[in-house]
Amino acid sequence: MSDHEFQSWFPESGSIDYDDTQTNITEATLDEMRSIAARYPQARSALLPMLHLVQSVDGRISPAGVEACAQILDITTAQVSGVATFYTMYRRRPGGRHHVGVCTTALCAVMGGDALLDQVCDRLGIHEGETTADGAISLERIECNAACDFAPVLMVNWEFFDNMNPEKVDDLLAALSSGETVKSPRGATLTSWMEAERVLAGFPDGRADEGPTAGEASLLGVNVARENGWRAPDAPPPIPASDEAASAEGGQK
Amino acid sequence: MTDELTPVLTANWADERAWKLTNYERRGGYQALRKALSTTPADVMELVKDSGLRGRGGAGFPTGMKWSFVPKDNPNPKYLVVNADESEPGTCKDMPLMMASPHTLVEGVIIASYAIGCRYAFIYCRGEVLHIIRRLQQAVREAYSAGYAGKNILGSGYDVEVVVHAGAGAYICGEETALLDSLEGRRGQPRLRPPFPAVAGLYASPTVVNNVETIASVPSIIDRGAAWFASMGTEKSKGMTIYSLSGHVKRPGQFEAPLGVTLRQLLELSGGMREGHELKFWTPGGSSTPILTAEHLDLPLDYEGMAAAGTMLGTKALQCFDETTSVVRTTLRWIEFYKHESCGKCTPCREGNWWLVQLLKKFEAGQAQQGDVEKLLDIADDIGGRSFCALADGAVACLTSAIKHFRDEFEQGMHIPAWELFPYERSALFAVREGAHA
Amino acid sequence: MTVTAKPGEVVASDLITVFIDGTEVQVPKGTLAIRAAEMIGVAIPRFCDHPLLDPVGACRQCLVEVPDMGNGRGMPKPQASCTLECAPGMKILTQETSAVAAKAQKGMIEFLLLNHPLDCPICDKGGECPLQNQAMANGAGESRYEGVKRTFPKPVSISALVLLDRERCILCARCTRFSEQISGDPFITLVERGALQQVGFYEDHPYDSYFSGNVIQICPVGALTSVSYRFQSRPFDLVSTPVTCEHCAGGCQLRSDHRHFQVKRRLAGDAPLVNEEWNCDKGRFAFKSGRGPDRLTRPLVRDNGVLRVASWPEAIDAAVAGLRRAGSRVGVLTGGRLTVEDAYGYSKFARAVLGTNNIDFRSRPASAEEAVFLANRVAGTELDEDRLSYTALQQAKQVVLVAFEPEEEAAMVFLRLRKAVRKNGLKVVTVAPFASNGSVKLNAELVATVPGAEAEALNGITADADTIVLIGDRAAVVPGLLNAAADFADRTGARLGWVPRRAGDRGAVETGCLPNLLPGGRPTGDVLARVDVQAAWGVDSLPGTPGLDADEQLAAAREGGFALLVGGLEPSDFTQANEVREGLENASFVVSLEQRLSEVTERADVVFPIALIEERPGHFLNWESRRGRVNTVIKQANQPMTDLRVLAALADALGRPLGVRTARQALAEFDELGAWDGARAPLSRGRGVAADHADGEVALATWRELLDGSRALDYEPALLETAKPVVARVAPETAEQFGLTAAVTVSGNGGWLTLPLDIVPGMAPDTVWVPTHAPDTPLSELGLVHGDPVTIGSPAAALERGEGFDQGEGGVA
Questions:
Q1: Among C465, C513, C459, which Cα is nearest to C481's?
Q2: Which residues form a coiled coil (chain B) (predicted)?
Q3: Which of A14, A63, A67 sits opposite C191 (nearest CB)?
Q4: Among C291, C325, C353, which residue terminates a domain?
């Protein structure tokens, strides 16, 4: 079973949450927004990263954030709202410190993603789209995250957790709930979801050098080639041939 | 005869800290840029044309020709936009490339920008891949510091700004015109064509949009020559490319091989299907390409070979499913994906996928009615080729090909739930716990 | 059969040949397939397509088959004919001849109906709904859909005027494209995505656009409905009449729909040369002001100081007696609501019956310079499409706006300018104190100008024959500005258009409702002109000396011994409302022809009830001098009297028959008279000097906003809710200089006014802008006009001076 009902009644769609007017946006945030706008030949291009920044500050797309974007980019709040509600990474309501996404697009679902989503729901006692009472974890069903050779895949704060199974999920959730340091097997030490959003807004957090060059599956072909001595052909000698080129190793296997 | 695997783009992925500029340079990185800057932009474009490089993002359009469509006399600035929105189900080649060796892409961006006369290039990367965005951001910063990007690159007088741009979750932004709207800070919905991006793309200016792997292939072509590149692959599908093997195979992963390799060859290299199971169906290039079965194992995985089999090479995302898998369930999940990712702009995609999901859920539950298979096909006929962009065509492709090859399973959906025909826990890679749905 | 585009629209070399369903059609390059098909009478079903909006290709209803693109190759997929440009030799097969196209269209309507509620019987659109019509014409009889329908809470107020039902919406994006492309007010947009996509807005910013009603009209389903029309009628119970809008000088063609002797709604008409298919919300929604309890239905006569209902003969006798007593000490004041025919009646009544040139339509701040300017430049000029028209605006290279805010004062001029800016790269320059919302949307270059310095600013602009200068009637109060504009046009070759604010103004100029002009632009002082008119009217003589203008008549009335015949004006329209009231009170005798009780009727001796706009025939002349018909929408057994009919009755009773009593007769006589071909009166060469501002004073800038305190908006509270907030504006430097922050008190002429403050970067210094006629605070109560010196200060400082405090309040010290 795909275990989710077909939704047809949408009482809360169409907008961000206007009722929650809380914001942590400061003059410094506005300056950063302006600096994002300055990266582009036309300022409006900055809207997506600016909304990521809003999330990094307010934990969601806040009314104050929408209004600030509209004002800085000289567009209407409706236009910002149209963008903020189009993309799935923008939250309408605050989530957890960590945001867990379980891939249930066909391949991951079939290979165990559906079961893992059930497991996460059971263990956390929440449904997809909800946040644990302690505010530690929010949960979302996600679509294909471009890591199919590592299926089933789970994302935490948009860091990869590859080749997941029930045991790994247990351990991961336990660590996330207890606030332990968690490292992505193919990424960096986990920050919070809000801190991750700041990186997406274009403000690096200095963790680019953490983690491996590539995951095991990514290296499969390279390793097989090495084992077999396979490689791409060498460049043919340039024409007209120089001495140096003529002496270069040529030929193919 | 070239080798079965030909690592070029993937060659440095096993290197320690391959993402660092110094390590990239140690392998000869940015030599191609120096070489390109020593010739004219026209020469660079000619070389890429001669190489026969075709777009690696799915459509397979000749890259050099795409570049040449940029009008020289247009007074507006020219733009290069790299499509790093990799989201097609099954596709997972660009992400490891940008994580392991982002400089391969950055070098390609600068060379391609030089060729088309662009002073402002963008790498539009999907937002849900934090660490890859970190690596890209760092690589671009390193390239600026080393004088490979920014003003007066390597003293050549050529300037180009490179911006890494994170998306925010929308499969449709992989469609190039939707990507441009998104990059302009709008809702990522496809634009009317014409005008084509080459004439009026980003900011209504001439724009080239290329896939990550396409642009990443450029430095090697500049470095080693068009003839070298063309020596790999088949007559019309030249060069090496990255194939992504996933699903119920023993060892999933990335294989860089000349175009035209077969799935049988790649399956052998990955140890075949998982122990005790056999291949049931597979996608050649993501879920949007019609599925194939075991009888297609020996077809060449190139643009022509796949077209001849009534499918497409797409992104070379080879998702392999074994005999435990319910085709109905898999199709439903794909259609749910398309419903979720439909941008909503046009009627057939927005409403058609909404309908298909509900109908397929009935098949999955064994509650479909007599005539519902025909209804599925008729709905598919009203969607396919009628929508604004190719997204809905992809949805229809997986559905109609599934019915074509496995009509029996859909017929059975009138009586027996898919989970009874194909107990879902058998498809999982692990023992499913009591209580959890597979 | 071969069909060719209308001759004159394109030159032959631009025509290409295509084949629609086998029929050869010649169309201009760039023609969309859907329009080419229309030319041979093939209606391809469509929803998102709208000829005035950019093509979008979203609904996919209009799919056709293209077996040959003109190069021998066919297109593999059906194409949306609304986005497909015809190519030479292209073959297009519509649903008429292609099974593929027919199947595709049938499939599309099925998709559109999946989630559409089956509530046609209670939907306002039912009966005039494109979706309903096409479902009936092309849809399947039975639905194959067994799923659940998408549901949302409904309806949603996207503004005080417009309601949204998201379940009915088919996402054609006509409304959102209109708001962005046509009016430039993107306060509604598509939000969410996929099957959840919907029209949305931002809660704190409803869809308050002057043009919001258009989205209701172009909605192809009942998703957007009108608050005021909701559940009022079924379309098939309405009777439609084409009319011309009475609210400004734009001349919009409208469709007025009535039932049970009441106008139920008004829609934009289809007038490609004027308003295309649009109109403004005032024209659409403001039509109930005459229907209130203050409507006059019977004549009133003052008896022992009190107005009482009287019979028509009694009232006519009373009026005649009063006018006879006044003799030549009488003047005629006409307002802005008059049709050409009525205005002609007043003009003739003044001259031929009362024997005076004391007539003036300008119930607003005006000047002698203006009267001469109108005689010299405006009166007697006929519509010239190529020179000065909506079309000419669209084709001009540059348009200069002087003392004129098109979005506020002539909304269709604004829309046409915006279209020209978007489509043709028109450059707009505005001589104004700041860049208004409308100017910003026109991407106009602002020449920030202190009121009074407009002439100088205008002279600094480069112009040639491809330039059109549009000058508003506000220019009258800036001494020398109208003359300077005329000089500017003469010097540069630019065309000069005078755009009055009210619907009757241009007709009043042409019919001679001015002290210096007879009908057809004939100068009263010119004996040949008078001879012309005498002959036409069959009178022995006409007065030759110029009469008193409105201000002079009112001054004479204040002094006493001067009678007034007044047709449709409000004291607050003038410079100094109290002076008008005093004039009416001190006048020896006042006859009022009016639709509703007003400050004039209160002070009149005899009041005649006059037909509403929907109850009379006639014409308006718009700013282009284009005639627009004012049709009798409501026909009743006892049709209310028009101004003309009352004037004719008075004339009869005075023993000097008017000669015309119906609109048809009046227009025929006016046309027979024709335009003056003799010498025009020269411009007054005086170069006025702007008022000097003492230290500590600033210049007052002001104009009327589209939705303001006008009585025409009465009984449409929802419309007024969408008006702009009432604020004053100053430049940041000025705010700093005077220590202004959130509010400002403007004082002058013994009165004061306190308003919230908007600080506008780039605004002209030493200037404060306030709306002319905000509800509750019309500037005429202070006697202030554009250019007057005023003092400004923070409300706190003003309070210390005893000048008031509360925002939005005003008073006279």
A1: C459
A2: none
A3: A14
A4: C291
pTM score, whole prediction: 0.95
**CATH 3.30.450.20: does it fit domain A8-94?**
no
Number of helices and strands in chain B (H, E): 18, 9
A30-86 per-position pLDDT tens digit = 999 999 999 999 999 999 999 999 999 999 999 999 999 999 999 999 999 999 999
* Residue C682, domain member (yes or no): no
CB contact under 8 A, C107 and B353: no
Domain that holds residue C703: 697-812
Residue B6 lies in a domain: no
Are residues C216 and C257 located together in one domain of the fold? Answer: yes
Residues C313 and C409 in one domain: no
Task: Please check the confidence at residue C810 and state whether its pLDDT lies above 50.
Answer: yes
Q: Which CATH architecture has domain A98-192?
A: 3-Layer(aba) Sandwich (3.40)
B106 chain-A contacts, CB cut-off 8 A? none
Total domains in chain B come to: 3
Give me the residue spans of the domains in chain A: 8-94, 98-192
User: Residue C693: pLDDT above 80?
Assistant: no
Residues C104, C144 within the same domain = no
Pick C63's closest partner by Cβ from B344, B379, B386: B386
Which residues on chain C are in Cβ contact (under 8 Å) with A82?
189-191, 200
| DSSP conformation class of B76 | S
Domain end, chosen from B198, B230, B262, is at: B230
The nearest CA of chain C is from the CA of A90 a distance in Å of 11
In this prediction, residue C250 carries a pLDDT of 98
Using CA atoms, how far apart are residues B385 and B90, in angstroms rounded to an integer?
23
Contacts of B268 in chain A (CB under 8 A): none
A106–B89 C-beta distance less than 8 A: yes
The answer to whether the CB atoms of A78 and C200 lie below 8 A apart is yes
Tell me the C-alpha distance between C664 and C646, whole Å.
15
Query: In whole angstroms, what is the distance from residue C445 CA to residue C604 CA?
Result: 48
Say whether B348 and C108 touch across the interface (CB within 8 A).
yes
CB–CB contact A86 C196 (8 Å):
no
Asked whether the predicted pLDDT for residue A120 surpasses 90, the reply is: yes
Contact residues, chain A, for C201 at CB < 8 Å: 78, 81
- First-to-last C-alpha distance (Å) of chain C: 79
Each residue of B313-349: pLDDT tens digit? 999 999 999 999 999 999 999 999 999 999 999 999 9
CA distance B417 to chain A (A): 9
Are A8-94 and A98-192 the same fold in CATH?
A: no
Q: Please list, in sequence order, all residues whose beta carbon lies within 8 angstroms of the beta carbon of residue A244, skipping any fewer than 6 positions away.
A: none
* Domain-located, residue B374: yes
Angle at C92 between CA C87 and CA C98, to 5 degrees: 165
Q: Choose among C346, C305, C246, C245: nearest CA to C646.
A: C346
A231, C11, C442, C500 from C251: Cα distances, Å: 78, 30, 21, 11
Q: Does A14 touch chain C (CB under 8 A)?
A: yes
C715 Cα to chain A: minimum distance (Å): 30
Q: Are C454 and C480 in contact (CB under 8 A)?
A: no
Residue-range definition of the domain harbouring residue B46: 21-230
Residue list, annotated binding site of A: 103, 108, 144, 148
Q: Is residue C90 part of a domain?
A: yes
CB A51 within 8 A of CB A122: no
**Listed residues B294, B322, B350: the one ending a domain:** B322
pLDDT at residue number C3: 59
Look at residue C116 and tell me if it is in a domain. Answer: no
Question: Cβ of C466: how many Cβ atoms within 10 Å?
Answer: 14
Structural domain ending residue among the three candidates C245, C264, C291: C291
Residues C33 and C85 in one domain: yes
Q: What is the pLDDT of residues C350-388, one digit of tens each?
A: 999 999 999 999 999 999 999 999 999 999 999 999 999
